[in-house]
Amino acid sequence: MIASHLVVPADITVSWTDIAGLDSVIQELRESVVLPVQHKDLFKRSKLWQAPKGVLLHGPPGCGKTLIAKATAKEAGMRFINLDVAILTDKWYGESQKLTSAVFSLAAKIEPCIIFIDEIDSFLRSRNLNDHEATAMMKTQFMMLWDGLSTNSNSTVIVMGATNRPQDLDKAIVRRMPAQFHIGLPSETQRNDILKLILQSEEISQDVDLNRLSKLTNGFSGSDLREMCRNASVFRMRQLIVASDQSGEALDRNNVNITMDDLLNSHL
Ligand code: ATP
């Protein structure tokens, strides 16, 4: 079951070139995660330097947190374990305890490795009196395994968590993730960059005005922008098919360019 969530770098299909508008986050991750993995021998020579064991990515849904985590693993040549929180929380305590230990020991064996936990708050939220005893024990065990990573300074295993609700996270967890990045809704300039990236592989008509689209899409996430472009592309193809069906003429394959109207009609 764990192996089905393990991805080796060669199989990670996204890299930093697939991310737009997040240059400063990428630069910081490059410095704090990627370079130390790529130049491990050099960094090990300083007793003052310590590999980060935890990174927190927080911000609204669809803004690229998972994308960034995967691309970081790809760029650093790290393996990537996508730890599905539901798998842990759905099991009875003994079983999830075994699974958690297995994940950490697997990660240490195949290091350098990122253990990615989406919606980390649902699993490691602030402890409270209503916590089921098993939940509290699971959190404690998770933290112990995590702390165990620091005792083996040779291994590079990073727990990377993503959340829309950083305020709900247990403070003890937050302390273990000193590198924190807010990935917010994109600004107009960032939306322009994202639209350029998404549409660069598409055939688009000359009337497509990215500056206007960027203005009109205030509040859209990267995921929303992608969906808008996807809808426009599908709409264009359907239009061609309908036109061909109605006229009885062959499909006009030279006219697949997405138009500004297609995009505006697909504007959510
Ligand atoms: P969630 O909190 O819902 O898990 P997320 O923040 O992890 O969301 P992703 O799953 O990384 O968001 O993003 C969804 C999709 O949106 C990506 O696969 C990508 O196609 C697109 N996307 C989001 N942000 C960007 C961006 N900055 N550049 C390019 N594409 C983006």
TrEMBL record:
Membrane topology, as annotated: Single-pass membrane protein
Cellular localization per UniProt: Mitochondrion outer membrane
Segments passing through the bilayer: none
Domain AAA+ ATPase: 51-189
Location, primary (coarse class): mitochondrion
Key words of the record: ATP-binding, Membrane, Mitochondrion, Mitochondrion outer membrane, Nucleotide-binding
Family per similarity comment: Belongs to the AAA ATPase family.
Full protein name: AAA+ ATPase domain-containing protein
Organism: Drosophila rhopaloa (Fruit fly)
Whole sequence portion shown: 81 to 348 of 369
